[in-house]
Amino acid sequence: MTGDQKPNPPQRPEGADAGWSAVGYLLGGMIVWGGIGWTVDHWLNLPHVGLLVGLIGGGAAGVYLIVKRLGA
C-alpha cells in the first residue's frame, strides 16, 4: 500500500550544487532582509540604518542556513 512507504529524507547537495545553494542562501538572506530594512528606513525616514542592519542580519542568517543545511 502507498501508506506503508516511508518518505525519503532530503539529500544534501554535493559539488557545484552545494556551492550554488550556499550562494543562493547568502544572497537571498541579504536581499530579503536588506529590502525589509530599506522599507523600514523609508517608513521611519532614517538615513539607511535599517538597510545596513538588514544586510548584516540577512548575511548572518544566510551563513547560519549554510552551516545548518550544508555542514557536516
From TrEMBL:
Keywords: Membrane, Transmembrane, Transmembrane helix. The chain crosses the membrane at residues 20-40, 46-67. It comes from the Bacteria. This is F0F1-ATPase subunit Ca2+/Mg2+ transporter. It comes from Actinoplanes derwentensis.
